[in-house]
């Protein structure tokens, strides 16, 4: 199930209907809370498009509260405490991200060792944040081929099948790919 | 007894230190008279620091306004007298704002105490800054958003750490003496707890043997340490540093008895000054110069 959350609407609804800039920590925390409330009404497994198209400015504090902390809540690997299990199997595509947004987002992701799939204003999808070369290559192959199995991926990128499956599972845990039975799809490659 | 302190003809971050030297031995409950009659020019830092100084006094200080009509008009245009009227006993000529000449006030002196104030500041600066940053300072259009981000993070320092309200002002002017170029200057001043006390309030924090205002500034400004345990904290000042690095700017932060600076090649400031006269809170100045030639 693909959902769409317009951040500018969440900002106006949760903080002030006159604002168009995502600045300050309290604003970011309120917007993240608004997003989480919407997610709580959805199914157990979701892909949510977080849309920045109508957001003016995004500062580091807000990027940390909205993007990094949201991701940390849903990435099993990034939970602050071992017993903080993600509340649901949620994946995110960040849409309408311009260069200025990207500056703040990239900075906070690198600070926490996180990564996201961002869709720019031109519709092109890219991995942003901390990813190693194998993860990036695997994600790019997934984007190009669509749904693939570990065996197919191993053949394509020249990894052994066990390593290919491990990398795919890592991408899933990091919310950069989704697993469907025995095959995997990149977040950002879905229609 | 009233102590009279003559303000320098040019009131900026450097000359304000002379004011603080004279103020240092005066107990807060003792009356001071600040004489600005012969002051001809003031930077945003000078004006916001002056308001901050008034906040630190138990006894409301006296301020003699500048005699020069041009100077007084400029101070009025920055909104200085709006707030000075509450913090000082104002004497001398009552000045009113006239139209701007060479200098442009990008953001009038604005009080900052809560998150909403930061939204207000960021909204106002974006409307006014684009044309000036791009056309007059030859900065890339991308610099405008970064400038607003930098301003946002600098103001949030007050909201998150100071424990009391402060002031922000932004202005462009030609910095003839030191640089020979136009600059845009952000000043953010507060009389709150300061960096050292803010970091000391962190739970479980261990202080080294050499723990003073200078080290607190190094921790916060250079290493991005924050009083919050949240690992996402401390990115604001790091972002400010990145922005000034990208646009060949200068950052200086004074707190308590120390002052730290990220110094670009066009300036000869020292990276760290210690044993300055004590002044509460934090006072930050960000200077972005006009871009010349290809970078």
The gist of it:
Chain A has 191 residues and is an alpha/beta fold.
Q: Could you give a short account of the major beta sheet of chain A?
A: 5 strands, mixed
Q: What is the strand content of chain A?
A: 15-25%
Largest sheet geometry of chain B: 7 strands, antiparallel
Helix content of chain A: 40-55%
Low-confidence stretches of chain B: none
Tell the overall outline of chain B: globular
Determine the fraction of residues in helical runs of chain B and give it as a percent range: 25-40%
Per CATH, what is the topology of the largest domain in chain A? Transcription Regulator spoIIAA
H/E element sequence of chain B:
EEHEEHEHHEEHHEEHHHEEEE
**Count of folded domains of chain A:** 2
- CATH domain class of the largest domain in chain A: Alpha Beta
The largest beta-sheet of chain A arranges its strands as 1-2-3-4-5
Structural class label of chain B: alpha/beta
Query: Structural class from helices and strands of chain A?
Result: alpha/beta
Cα gyration radius of chain B (Å):
18 Å
Beta-strand content bin of chain B: 25-35%
Name given to the CATH architecture of the largest domain in chain A: 2-Layer Sandwich
> What is the number of strand segments of chain B?
13
Q: Helix segment count of chain A? A: 7
Greatest interface and its residue counts?
A-B, 26 and 24 residues
Low-pLDDT regions of chain A? none
């Amino acid at each position: 199930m693909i959902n769409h959350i317009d951040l500018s609407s969440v900002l106006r609804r949760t903080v002030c209907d006159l604002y168009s800039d995502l600045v300050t920590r309290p604003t970011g925390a309120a917007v993240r809370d608004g997003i989480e409330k919407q997610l709580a009404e959805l199914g157990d497994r979701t892909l949510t498009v977080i849309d920045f198209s109508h957001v003016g400015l995004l500062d580091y504090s807000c990027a940390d509260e909205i993007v990094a902390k949201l991701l940390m809540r849903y990435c099993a690997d990034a939970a602050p405490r071992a017993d903080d299990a993600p509340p649901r199997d949620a994946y995110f595509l960040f849409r309408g991200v311009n260069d200025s947004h990207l500056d703040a987002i990239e900075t906070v992701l690198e600070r926490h060792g996180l990564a996201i799939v961002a869709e720019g204003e031109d519709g092109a999808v890219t991995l942003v944040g901390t990813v190693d070369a194998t993860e990036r290559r695997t994600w790019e192959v997934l984007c190009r081929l669509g749904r693939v199995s570990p065996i197919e991926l191993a053949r394509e990128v020249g990894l052994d099948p066990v390593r290919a499956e491990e990398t795919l599972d890592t991408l899933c845990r990091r919310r950069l790919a989704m697993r469907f039975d025995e095959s995997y799809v990149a977040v950002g490659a879905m229609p | 007894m009233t102590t009279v302190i003559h303000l320098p003809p040019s009131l900026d971050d450097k000359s304000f230190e002379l004011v603080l030297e004279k103020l240092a031995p005066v107990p807060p409950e003792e009356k001071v008279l600040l004489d600005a009659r012969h002051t001809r020019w003031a930077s945003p830092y000078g004006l916001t620091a002056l308001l901050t100084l008034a906040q630190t006094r138990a006894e409301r200080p006296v301020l003699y306004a500048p005699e020069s009509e041009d100077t007084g008009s400029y101070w009025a245009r920055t909104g200085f007298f709006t707030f000075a009227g509450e913090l000082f006993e104002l004497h001398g000529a009552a000045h009113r704002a006239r139209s701007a000449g060479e200098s442009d006030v990008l953001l009038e002196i604005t009080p900052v105490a809560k998150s909403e104030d930061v939204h207000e500041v960021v909204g106002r600066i974006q409307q006014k800054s684009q044309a000036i940053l791009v056309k007059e300072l030859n900065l890339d259009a991308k610099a405008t958003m970064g400038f607003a981000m930098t301003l946002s993070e600098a103001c949030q320092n007050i909201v998150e750490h100071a424990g009391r309200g402060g002031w922000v002002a932004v202005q462009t002017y030609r910095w003839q003496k030191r640089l020979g170029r136009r600059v845009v200057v952000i000043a953010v001043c507060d009389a709150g707890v300061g960096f050292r006390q803010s970091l000391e309030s962190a739970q479980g924090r261990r202080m080294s043997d050499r723990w003073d205002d200078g080290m607190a500034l190094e921790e916060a400004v250079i290493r991005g340490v924050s009083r919050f345990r949240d690992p996402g904290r401390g990115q604001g000042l790091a972002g400010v540093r990145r922005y000034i690095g990208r646009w060949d700017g200068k950052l200086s932060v004074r707190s308590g008895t120390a002052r730290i600076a990220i110094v670009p090649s066009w300036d000869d400031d020292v990276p760290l000054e210690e044993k300055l006269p004590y002044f509460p809170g934090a006072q930050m100045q960000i200077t972005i110069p006009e871009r010349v030639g290809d970078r």
